[in-house]
Amino acid sequence: MRSAPLPRPGGDARRADGGMCNSAGECMFTGTYISELDNKERFVVPKPFREILARNAEEDRAIFFAAAQTLRVYSQKGVREYVAKLEPQLAGTNGKVVMGLLRATLSAGLAFYSGSGRVVIPELFTNRYGLSPGMRLTLRGCDEFFEITPLRD
Q1: Can you tell me the distance from the alpha carbon of 148 to that of 129, in angstroms, rounded to the nearest whole number?
Q2: What is the DSSP string of 79-112?
């Protein structure tokens, strides 16, 4: 007899492929992967991450890069929820400016990945984070997004 995944606190359950889904059926990015930037500054999105992106997509294979202390990658649904959480907190005049800048940054960070999972990191972000061809990257799932950091040998 095969055992079912055990529920986690809060109603989360581990999927067979190692990802996490909550009781509402929303799946989250979990796990850590290593990738490498090729000579066109592309990296491969791991298959478990591509599956989550596909579940949360409005347009085929679209993702958004966001600048933070680390480079973050969100699905379309994830970025919409992220912005919705921030809007009430930034209701004042300065908040409108911040939201405008955030939307501009996310628009600059729109990218599409290929069927094999290759995606080019927009130049704005390769420059900001000092990423270059041949560099090895750590891709770490952080629930609603995954982050990209250079792998330190």
Answers
A1: 10
A2: HHHHHHHHHHHT-SHHHHHHHHHHHHHHHHTEEE
Q: In what order do the strands lie in the sheet with 71-74?
A: 32-36, 136-142, 145-150, 71-74, 62-67, 110-112
- State how far the Cα of 78 lies from the Cα of 57, in Å rounded to an integer: 9
C-alpha distances out from residue 70 to 76, 81, 128, 141, Å: 19, 19, 10, 12
Question: How far is CA 115 from each of CA 51, 110, 142, 150, rounded to the nearest angstrom?
Answer: 11, 17, 23, 24
User: What confidence tens digit (pLDDT) does each residue in 16-68 have?
Assistant: 444 455 555 567 889 999 999 999 999 999 999 988 888 777 666 677 777 77
CA distances, 43 to each of 61, 89, 105, 131, 152 (Å): 14, 34, 21, 11, 17
Residues comprising the chain, all counted: 153
Partners of 1 in beta bridges: none
- Sequence letter at residue 131: L
**Cβ atoms of 65 and 125 closer than 8 Å:** yes
